[in-house]
Amino acid sequence: MRTSHSIETDALSRLDNLPWTRFHTLMLVALGVGWALDSFETNIIGSVFGVLKSQWHLSAAQGSLAISIWVFGMLVGAIAFGYLADRFGRKRLFLATLLWYALFSVATVFSWNYESFLFFRAMTALAVGGEYSAVTATMGEFIPKRHRGRTDSLILSGFPVGALLSAAISYLVLNHLPAEISWRVGFGFGTTMALIFFWIRRVIPESPRWLLQQGRVAEAEAIVEHIAASAAREYASAQDRALLQRRYTKTRFTYTVPAFWHNVRELFGTYRLRTALAGALNFSQAAVVYGVLSLMALVILPYMKVPSADMPLYYMYGNAAALAGGLTAAVLVEAWGRRASLFVSYTFTVTAIVFIYAMHTLPGMVMGYCLIQFGVTWAYISGYVVSSEILPTRIRATGLGVSVAVGRLGAVIAPLLLTSLYSAVGTPSAALIALLLLALPGPIAAGLWCLRGRETRNVSLEEGSADEYTPAPVEPNALTA
Length: 481
Hints:
This is MFS transporter. By secondary structure, the protein is mainly α. The chain has a single domain (7-209, 262-457), classed as Up-down Bundle (Growth Hormone, Chain: A), CATH 1.20.1250. Helices cover 77% and strands 3% of the residues. The chain contains 20 helices and four strands. The chain has a two-stranded antiparallel ribbon with strand order 1-3. A two-stranded antiparallel ribbon has the order 2-4. Helix 2 (22-56) packs parallel to helix 7, helix 5 packs across helix 17 and helix 13 (272-303) packs antiparallel against helix 18. It starts with a strand and ends with a strand. Residues 469-481 have low confidence and may be disordered.
């Protein structure tokens, strides 16, 4: 049976109003690198599949199966590790998922046939799904509210950075190493990076917001005090020190110990509209990300007679555009607000799909691919920022895990559907129409939220996720020390 308790603390008000410190920079790098590694694993299969296809005599359908098994593993990992992050803490999970990733990424390097390769990829995907839940839940829980949207966007921009790295490494190994070992070296690179950044993540403390949800008030306040003390050493002026010494009115709230099925009932009961929004946004962006990856690797580039060794170059173009989309999100979620950035980005992505449909040359299709990558990166970053801010701390990781799982359904469906349509019709046109239809839930949900949802820019996570929402004043309710 669940029990509820009331506590009072000013820890979260202090955390929300801290100046930017080296600690926050460390958070950005440590969590952003996790997303880069996730992206590296997700994208490298498209770059090296041409080599695997030749080595193991695979069909296009088997290539789609590899992608589908990958995203199904992410689906399971997102839900399982999402709940565990709510139950046992953010830190334990974002360390455990990184170690799990490293273990099975090493195993992938030593795959002896296609079946063993699929198994190790599925096990690696469990960790990547867990990263999605643990990292997206953690990223905003430490960051001062005026920096939160931009910082979350920069962390999530690690995804196109990882994709660029994947394309660059794949291009080098495919063109300078024997085919039978080149793809193994590519997968091994991700393992090396994971082990390096595991050490960096060790110094990130447990989330004070999660600790307060467990009733561990003294631990949460000690972590906030430590961050504030480190900030005091960085800021020498009297004005800055006065800001750090400000005392905030204590906030009273109720905490409960999470239980899986209770969390699920809350997500699909009290918070069903927010859960539906997060799920629709994730389904749309995942269908586009994995759908366009499959189209480029298995349909468009082979249709245009591009050699397999040259394919990573085209992914580099698209991933550079994706990085530009991530940086655009980092600016516009603050400048325009969450709702406007969400709606415009998803609408832009659908428009880019229409553009590539109208193209019939390789340069035109590559330009369309770049526009899609720009738009969908801007879109999914805006979507994750909104989703992480409108779900309460006690169920944030579980809810994000559910939304990732819904998104992975789109990622499973898109590659199989699009390649099947291409096989049946013989041209990319039918597959692009299907991709457009799969993308539509995103702009529809974003439009509804833009009209009727709450704006969470520059408010605390507690205010943004409250059942009843009242906009916060510009200045916090504080007393001068």
